[in-house]
Amino acid sequence: MKIFLALTVLMLALGSAQGIAQNYPAKQLRIIVPYPPGGGTDLAARLIAQKLTETLGKTVIVENRAGANGNIGTDAMAKAAPDGYTLGMATPGPVTAGKSLYPNLPYDPERDLSPVILVNASPNVLAVHPSVPARSVKELIALAKNRQLHIAASTIASVQHLLAEMLNHATGARMEVITYKGGAQAATDVAGGQVEALWSVLPAALPFIQGDRLRVLAVASDKRTALLPQVPTMGEAGWPAVIGTAWNGVVAPAGTPKAIVDLLAQEIGRSLHLADIKERFTASGMEAIGGTPDEFGAFLRAETTKWARVVKAANIKIE
Asked: What number is the average pLDDT over the span 109-138?
């Protein structure tokens, strides 16, 4: 009898999920961005929202829910109804590194979020103010061992913050890490000479690099970027372990019907191959990626494991 009841409940649940998927979408959708308007994550969300509005035939709005280094907006994604009408932009801090950094995170990224698609990725660059007498990573490390230097990064728990800690740990340098409320402010202060060095996602630093207000020493990726082909990777500079890419992805609340997740991945993936989207990303220093929900899930697990090792090795603690 118990087995019969369990099978009945399961069949009803499956039937309900299939019915939702068949009628989807029936109303407006929203994409939660866990940061203020104007950044790279917000740009990606608005481009996706525009294309989904066109292909799904329903309005898709972007809702900015900033705060707590992305954790507030990500928590809102995790706690939303799993009906396919609330999506969220995932980034490294709140979705992968945060699990190791915050002892009281109000959600579990692996348990509470369903991967949809990896949207884009952008290299991080190590740069200095032109007045700093270092033209390579080795020269910067030597300088940092002889005098106090400061290195700026965007928000606490961001990839840039972790890269700064990784660089100190890997090289024995002790540059004081200064975190900001966003990457644009960090890049502006280094370009203005208030801070000597910077870890930055490429889009935030690119205008200052092109204006000769920042000198780039290396990119923290496994290959050089086409936008700065003359700049070596951290591996080429001598520290292959100091690697970390900024990326944006789309997630849904856990329990969202698979058919809806697959449909969204398919539609978003198709838009990432459109010339106008690729051009907007490329101009901003980002590369369109795409892929399946399973591939994005595997990527998130690998990133979570990687950053857990970094946080433990560098003994990074955030209250």
From this structure: 97
CA atoms in the 13 A half-sphere facing the CB of 60: 24
End-to-end CA distance of the chain: 51
pLDDT of amino acid 189: 97
**Angle (nearest 5°) at CA 180 between 176 and 182:** 140
What DSSP string runs through 255-267? T--HHHHHHHHHH
Relative to beta strand 86-90, strand 29-33 is: parallel
Q: Cβ contacts of residue 29 below 8 Å, gap of 6+? A: 52, 56, 58, 59, 60, 61, 84, 85, 86, 87
d(CA 201, CA 185): 12
pTM of the complete model: 0.86
CATH code of the domain containing 162: 3.40.190.10
- Give Cα 81 to chain centroid, integer Å: 23
Q: Kind of pairing, strands 150-153 and 86-90? A: unpaired
The answer to whether residues 85 and 260 touch, using CB atoms and an 8 Å cutoff, is no
> How many CA atoms are closer than 13 Å to the CA of 157, on its beta-carbon side?
24
- CA geometry: angle 169, 239, 157, nearest 5 deg: 50
Element (H, E) at 90: strand 86-90
252 in the Ramachandran plot: left (φ > 0), alpha (ψ -120 to 50) or beta? beta
Q: pLDDT digit string (tens) for 173-214? A: 989 999 998 888 999 999 999 999 999 999 889 999 999 999
At 254 the pLDDT is: 98
Task: Note down the domain range covering 58.
Answer: 2-121+245-314
Q: What is the CATH number of the domain that holds 295?
A: 3.40.190.150
Same domain, yes or no: 117 and 127:
no
Q: What is the mean pLDDT of the chain?
A: 91
Query: Is 198:183 a contact under the CB 8 Å cutoff?
Result: no
Q: Residue 79 falls within a domain, yes or no? A: yes
Using the predicted structure, report yes or no on whether residue 88 has a pLDDT greater than 60. Answer: yes
Please check whether residue 98 lies inside any domain of the structure. yes
